[in-house]
Amino acid sequence: MLSAEDVSTAPSFPVNQFSNPEKVKGMSKSVPTFLQDESDRETDTASDSSYSLGRIKKSPSSLTNLSGSSGLASLSSVSTSVMSVYSGDFGNVDVKGNIQFAIDYVDQLKELHVFIAQCRDLAVADIKKQRSDPYVKSYLLPEKHKLGKRKTSVKKKTLNPVYNEILRYKVDKALLASQRLNISVWHNDTFGRNSFLGEVDLDLGVWNWNDKQNKQMIWYPLKPRTPLAALDLENRGEMKLALQYVPQPVGGKKPSATGEVHIWVKECHDLPILRGSKLNAFVKCTVLPDTSRKSRQKTRAVAKTTDPVFNHTMVYDGFKPEDLKEACVELTVWDHNKLVNHFLGGLRIGLGTGKSYGTAVDWMDSTLDETSLWEKMINSPDQWVEDTLPLRMLTIAKMAK
């Protein structure tokens, strides 16, 4: 049985508000989940975690005595990119050229070191001035957050920049098995948006840290960005939940003309750890197209586990049967942090028609499994229907202020 504190409710689903296509269209805008919690504005200065080689004379990293490798990296060591989800202009510049770098894990410091040596034959970003002002940026993926970004200094007016800088990550070696290292090259535009010049993506899960050849300087060909769909291949864990539609709720003073949707978030399994060794997970819920603050509900945070048990039911009322075809339950799982919460994965449970009240919306994009659960709920009133669904990357519907 659920206790009173395990059940939360939201105000009635404002049906009339969403029957207006223009209002629905205005609320259907989405933003990448990453961009809701941080901006990615670039400057000319180097990252605090970027160090010139000359300042690390006593580093135990083998990267300080690297020899160059003349050959290009074999394709077997470079994975398909999982998509650069950064602010900036993509596609405006034809990607060309190569980048030379090496990586090593320093056990004494418990740090990943990425030695960025140089680039050559980069594309021209500023056509009018026939120049590029390149810098290199790195992320540990699948999650983009402030703990994961490092970058070099900017080199002015060159297509063959030399950096000789080490980008450092304080991270447990065991965590790298679930990470990808994304290295991208950008043109710095002081007065506009930075331009993408190419990227390389390494799967650290298959990286051989004991192979001395992997610690040598290697030339990698820069690649154009790849489709966003590749992000969905990342393992983000799963959620066990149950749904119920109650057409005629009981217990009120007057019989209700509309029904309730009950969402029972039971537990999650195998959530990804994005920072350190701790995970404080909680779940947010909203029923689209309602993006008002009053419609948002969330569970408590469950600390220090990748398999949190929530056992929390959320209740939304004001639903007529026909509204169920137009609505979509958006559930997102987050890692709670004092400064900023980090997105782990989510579900979007609805019919996946791409439309709501006749208006095209990008959040009506349920998978087959998500759609199947919603259909079972519609076809089984007053009964709980349950499933365990894989969490996925979402472009979260923008919330109203």
> How many runs of DSSP E, i.e. beta strands?
21
Q: What Rg, in angstroms, do the CA atoms define?
A: 24 Å
- List unreliable stretches of 5+ residues: 15-88, 227-233
Estimate the global geometry from the Cα principal axes: elongated
Annotation field: number of helices: 4
Describe the structure.
The chain is mostly beta strands. Helices cover 7% and strands 34% of the residues. It has a five-stranded mixed sheet with strand order 1-16-12-11-21, with helices on one face.
Please give a handful of descriptors for the protein shown.
401 residues, mainly beta, 5-stranded mixed sheet, 5-stranded antiparallel sheet, 4 helices
Write the layout of secondary structure elements.
Elements lengths: L6 E4 L4 H4 L2 H6 L6 H5 L12 E3 L45 E9 L4 E10 L13 E8 L7 E3 L10 E9 L9 E8 L7 E9 L14 E4 L16 E9 L12 E11 L10 E9 L8 E2 L3 E2 L5 E11 L8 E8 L6 E8 L5 E2 L2 E2 L7 H12 L5 E6 L11
Parallel strand pairs: 1-16
Antiparallel strand pairs: 2-7, 3-4, 3-10, 4-7, 5-6, 5-8, 8-9, 11-12, 11-21, 12-16, 13-14, 13-15, 13-17, 17-18, 19-20
Summarize the structure.
Helices cover 7% and strands 34% of the residues. The protein has 4 helices and 21 strands. The protein has helices at residues 15-18, 21-26, 33-37, 368-379; strands at residues 7-10, 50-52, 98-106, 111-120, 134-141, 149-151, 162-170, 180-187, 195-203, 218-221, 238-246, 259-269, 280-288, 297-298, 302-303, 309-319, 328-335, 342-349, 355-356, 359-360, 385-390.
